[in-house]
Amino acid sequence: MTEEQELEEVVEGTTRVLVPVDRTDNGPGKKMGRVFYNRQMAFNRDVSVMFFAHPDVRPTRALDAMAATGARAVRIMKEVGPDLEFHINDWEKVSADVIQRNVDLNQAERCVVRNEDLKCLLAHERFDYVDLDPFGTPVPFLHSAIQGLRKKGILAMTATDTAPLAGTHAKKCVRRYQARPCRCVFGHEVGLRLLIGYVGRQAAMFDKGIEPLLCFYADHYMRLYVRLPESADAADASLAKLGYFKFDRASHERTILEDYEAGASGPIWIGDIIDHDFIQKMPLLDTLAEKDRCAKYLQLWKDELNVPFFYENNELSSDLHVSPPRQDRLLEGLSEIGKVSKTHFSPTGFKCDQPYSVVKERYRQLFT
Ligand SMILES: C[S@@+](CC[C@H](N)C(=O)[O-])C[C@H]1O[C@@H](n2cnc3c(N)ncnc32)[C@H](O)[C@@H]1O
Q1: pTM: predicted TM-score of the whole model, two decimal places
Q2: Boundaries of CATH 3.40.50.150 in the chain?
Q3: Residue 134 Cα, ligand 1 centroid: separation in angstroms?
Q4: Residue 351 Cα, ligand 1 centroid: separation in angstroms?
Q5: Cis peptide before 309 (omega within 30 of 0)
Q6: What is the CATH number that goes with domain 310-367?
Q7: What is the pLDDT of residues 102-161, one digit of tens each?
Q8: Which residue, 37, 88, 121, 277, is the most exposed by fewest CB within 10 angstroms?
Q9: Check: CATH 3.40.50.150 for 7-280?
């Protein structure tokens, strides 16, 4: 038996959503047998709305596999209105009932409410887009999603288990992702690349490759939008973009390795995490719940260099025993030695295509 939950109407973007009165307003949260809604994830859903407004995103059959209130898919259908059939699923009966009410409330057409275990659903149906948004790790659901995607289908996925991925719980990461993380200043980029690499390795088992369109870290989660082309060649090409790395804590040097060496972290994805051609065409809509934040991130993603890994202003300043300069002065000064950009991973971080030793020398010249 599930208990009745009191609902109230909120507006997210321009969509009216019935959500539980008793809900999680920050952090990942987890309440079984109840309907889940987290207002802090509105930005995550905003990005999905922008994603479906992209001219090159043209699925005809999509699945929001773990939908809770259905806020994500209903918003996409209401605010973008793509020409597709959106299946909105949750295995909790209370959630499926709320999803139906939210579909009706918004007169969202072409939505099909489902109430199944996603593993059963994806065992016998195929989609062009599958969205996984679990409590914690997506690992238990990944094979189902990969097998349930049509050729060149898109996998969207949230992972809130950032502590293992970023190296705080290293043993758990090794068990779960069969990869070694690294607890360090750029640990969240390691975690994101480790997660992409894991998806690539699992997809390859089904003769599928991965093409990251947009992969990012925000708040307490990692989020991936990845296309999965189906062919042995595509799988091999993706495996070729896996690697390892070493972080020398004395010199701060990050060294990418093609093969494993004793003491290395990984495997991780060393290819691009943002497809710049793709992101250039992703529109900023007026209807978004957190438009200013979306605008900020969109610009960061458009400008961000794809090179692993970012550096921290504080890392260099404490290494050289000086106070950190302003971020804009730092970026301007470093632009003389190579390509440099801000990074979405950290407001005080930056990407540069030069090794730490070169960056440090320039930093010394400029700021000591
Ligand atoms: C974090 S919530 C999803 C939040 C939602 N996507 C949103 O944006 O508000 C995870 C949901 O997955 C559902 N779920 C967990 N395991 C499932 C399974 N095997 N099949 C279908 N739904 C499942 C839970 O009932 C829960 O509602």
Answers
A1: 0.96
A2: 7-280
A3: 5
A4: 35
A5: yes
A6: 3.30.56.70
A7: 999 999 999 999 999 999 999 999 999 999 999 999 999 999 999 999 999 999 999 999
A8: 277
A9: yes
